[in-house]
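Wed. Picked up where I left off yesterday with RHS repeat-associated core domain-containing protein. The coffee machine is broken again, so keeping this brief.
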Amino acid sequence: MIVDENGATVANYSYDPWGKVLSVSENAAVAGQPIGYAGYYYDRETKLYYLQARYYDPETARFISRDPDPGDKDDPITQNAYTYANDNPVMLVDPDGNRGLTTLYRTVAGALTYVMVSGAVAKSLVKKAVGKVTKKVLRK
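Structure written out below (tokens, as returned):
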């Protein structure tokens, strides 16, 4: 949906989960604007979405070229070089054509877990050190 400065709807688009256009309703002010499904640029001539690293075809629900990222050897779904959003477009998106967000989320979650665990360990060590210093000061 696109709204103008007054909040009035000037365009409305609907898509299936794979980005295939189901309906378009737009006024002349925005007719032909290039932003489509999931915020991707849509090329009306080729009927492909541009995702920076490669083009995606919503008719076949596949990219038209191989993924430059070879995938995760422990996750077979990421090894198919043509899948969009790890074959799960309802829950995931592929923001730049390199890989679905699951992998990104896993990486971020892993990093956050590391930071939280490291922080908890550091906090525990600091508490012990402060406790020892406090006991020594109180004994004197």
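Quick read: The longest strand covers residues 9-15.
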